[in-house]
Amino acid sequence: MSESPPLRGREAELAVAGDLLRAVAAGAGAVLAIVGEAGIGKTALVAEIYERAAAAGFAAGRGTAQEHGEIAPLTPLLVALRSGRAPLLAADDFGALAAYAERGFWLVDRLAVELRRRTAAQPLLICVEDVQWADPLTRHALRVLPGQAGILWVTTGRAEAGPVPSRRLALPALNTAVLGEIAADRLGAPAGPALRALIAGAGGNPGLVVSLVTGLLAEQRPASGVMPDRLVRDVRARLRPLPAGTRALLHAAALLAATFTVDQIAAVLNGPPERVVLPWLDPAVRDGVLEDLGDHLRFRHDLLRRAVRAGGRPH
Q1: pTM for this predicted structure
Q2: Fewer Cβ atoms within 10 A, N terminus or C terminus of the chain?
Q3: Which of 138, 170, 202 is the C-terminal boundary of a domain?
Q4: How far apart, in Å, are the Cα atoms of 78 and each of 33, 71, 86, 96, 132?
Q5: CA distance linking residue 236 with residue 231, whole number of Å
Q6: What is the domain extent for residue 185?
């Protein structure tokens, strides 16, 4: 099996995480909140922290909140406690929690007892990703459980929605040189001029670059104005949680020039701005897809704009 590509451009963030791991190994408790837009590299950073924690003698687990809801309350946290080669909770201890399944607050309290007992053997790393989609009981648990000695909690999300962090890392965009290195890691060679031009349109978002390069490799063709299917699919999935009216607005905007106005979008949608644009604009801006420039708007990432246009009308 080939090695995973290295994590690029996050040295400062890894230094912060390393400091927290050492503090927790020495007996402290801590919370690291990692926030940023979709595709900015939150999961890649968590994966690297996870590997470093395991190498430092931590027991570690990861869970992810699901966009369309959970099988049961507290699922993301329970998955974290039972994931990996050496789960944080043994099968018998986990099974004993079933008695509290219908009493959510008692279940969280019992988890606190189990985690306190588990830290007597070794420090713990517990990662819960995409907390913006977490169910209410998981959110409650993430407010009351952190603080115990010997545990580093790591959460990720589009914005803070978990426990009050000891440290907060808002992941910035990566510069074009680092994005070129990310592409080269996957290509096995430096990116050519055409691909570098596309990478410049990623606006510092490594997820868009990975989707672009992975798609080009799968289709075995050079970079061009034609967006690979993989990128189009990934962008469609990225926008799926947005309201249908917002997705229609974005498709219309993608047909326009690099910057555009509310009236121009309304003209493409063939309706009055107050009906076809204004009610749906805020989710696109809030989610980081569009930027409000005052009298004009634009896509935050030109590569995303091109993928939206290539994907055709939303369903």
Answers
A1: 0.91
A2: N
A3: 170
A4: 19, 11, 14, 13, 17
A5: 9
A6: 181-310
Question: Cα angle at 15 between 118 and 78, to 5 degrees?
Answer: 30
Closest alpha carbon to 168 in 54, 288, 42, 58? 42
Number of domains comprising the chain: 2
Distances (CA, A) of 143 to 100, 108, 164, 226: 19, 11, 7, 46
- HSE-CB of 264 using CA atoms within 13 angstroms: 15
Core vs surface per residue 83-108: b (16+ CB within 10 A) or e: beeebbbeeebeeebeeeeeebeebb
- Spatial neighbors of 252 by CB under 8 A, at least 6 apart, are 265, 268, 269
CATH number for the domain harbouring residue 153: 3.40.50
Q: Tell me: do 128 and 186 sit in the same domain.
A: no
Average pLDDT over every residue of 224-240: 94
Using left for φ > 0, alpha for ψ between -120 and 50, and beta otherwise, residue 74 falls in: left
236 vs 117: CA distance, rounded Å? 44
**String of b and e for 181-197 (b: at least 16 CB within 10 Å)?**
bbbbebeeeebeeebee
3 falls in which pLDDT band (50, 70, 90)?
A: confident
pLDDT bin (cut points 50, 70, 90) of residue 195 is: very high
Give yes or no: residues 163 and 186 share one domain: no
